[in-house]
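TL;DR need structure tokens for one chain.
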Amino acid sequence: MDHHPPQPDRHHDPIDAVHRLRDREESERQRQLGGLLVHDLNNVLFALLGRVQLLQRRAPDAATARAADEILGTARLLESQVVKLHAACRRDEPATASALVASAVSEALRESIDALPAHAKPREFAQLLGLIPADATFEGDPTQVATAVRQVLSIHRARATAPIALGIRVRAGSPESIEITFEDSAGAPTHVPQMPSLLDGSDAKTTFELAGLPLAAAHRAIRDFGGRVSMGATHAGLRSAISFEFRRGVAIARFDAAGREHEHGNEHGDGCGHEDECLPAARRVLIADDDAAVRAVLVAALESIGDDVDTLDNPGACDTHKDLASFDVIVLDAGGGGVEALRRLRARGVEVPVLLASGGDVVAPEDPFTRTALKPFALDALDRTLGSLASMRKV
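>> reply
TL;DR here they are.
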């Protein structure tokens, strides 16, 4: 009788498990890179189109106006290619159902830490998980938290020569937030990975840094519900942080609008129906977008027609703005937690008109005070839409 040696169980082979994890990380980075490029290209294109349209408005002579038209025509060709790239790199939108923070963080850490080599595994973290309030919830997808943790740990894994220090910190505030930190003790790095971006042109030496793809993948995974990722050097090694906001119990209870003036719109909840004519001489506009180039061109466009403009670099925090009731309309980026912030606004009965802007498809709350726009959009169309939205406010 022939005897065959037992075959190893691939699912329990630690070496094979590491290979599977790295294959999944690499696949995730490629997918996230496509989304990152489309996002940045779209915002660069919007800034370009906006600047050219502003030039058209201010053209001192016919020759300048014709030159602006020619540039705009070329930019429109680029826009058509970006649309094709977006279709090719379309990603699954993360779920935004309410989830328990403690459960999501626990599962994410266990999965990622189990895949680390023995010498890099952090020490027991059960007591750290106990710091998270049992009723803490966030509006997002727990699998995205796991993706962020996995990608960030992949950078530390390549450096670690000793156990990676894990930290969990709950920050007070309104709303509260949780920060998960990792720090290796491999010595101060000569270079800290940076998220690759086409928009970072402040330094002529800046390059599109592929080494920062894990950071970009991590940030992309959780930015849709307002999460943030950062990495920096310490005297001992490299330190990274993943943070996102949470709320206690029922989310809308914290955002009670009692005492705030938020009665907007006419008795039918309708606009005036004459978009081309409803252009107020001045509107108070809040622009909530996490991209500096987009904010800059919108500010320039709206201030050029007399609007009073304020900006916010965190779309996910627009519902906590202290002067929210004073704005006639909000231009809100759908990413970075913008959609979730809008849902919280509507849940508590705030009817401030909102133009929800996105580089791709977005599912917005269905109400008469919300409209959606696909970036890049024409500034003249923006004027008309904001005029129509602002007209819903009571004088």
